[in-house]
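FAQ

Q: What does a record look like?
A: Structure on top, sequence underneath. For example:
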């Protein structure tokens, strides 16, 4: 299950997907989140025109009234998610295989934030 933070309808009935993060910069795993959300939204029949990542502007200093337009930065990450988007089907296949198991898989968390999972004596490696 995924939940999109913001879906903004465009005049051509397509949507812009906006993922909101409380950090002050885009991180690699944020792009993976956006890719998964776009994949699910499109598989659900929505036409996604652009994908954005909204995060706090590290240079914003409040003087007087709060300015939301200056507090947040919105980056178009449509190009940056093209590669992670290609991996989503593989990740979902691995998840489905794991869910079908009668026995719980053994997880080992590697120090470099990669998950190694043993499923039916096969080691599956994936990024967190």
């Amino acid at each position: 299950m995924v939940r999109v933070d913001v879906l903004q309808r465009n005049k051509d009935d397509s949507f812009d997907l906006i993922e909101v993060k409380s950090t002050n910069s885009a991180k690699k795993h944020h792009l993976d989140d956006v890719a998964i959300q776009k994949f699910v939204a499109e598989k659900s029949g929505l036409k996604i025109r652009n994908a954005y990542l909204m995060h706090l502007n590290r240079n914003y200093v409040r003087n007087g009234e709060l300015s939301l337009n200056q507090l947040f930065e919105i980056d178009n990450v449509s190009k940056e998610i093209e590669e992670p988007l290609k991996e989503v089907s593989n990740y979902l296949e691995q998840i489905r295989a794991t869910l079908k198991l009668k026995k719980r898989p053994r997880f080992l968390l590697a120090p470099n934030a990669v998950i190694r999972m043993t499923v039916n004596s096969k080691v599956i490696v994936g990024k967190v």
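Q: Is there anything notable about this one?
A: The chain has a mean pLDDT of 84.
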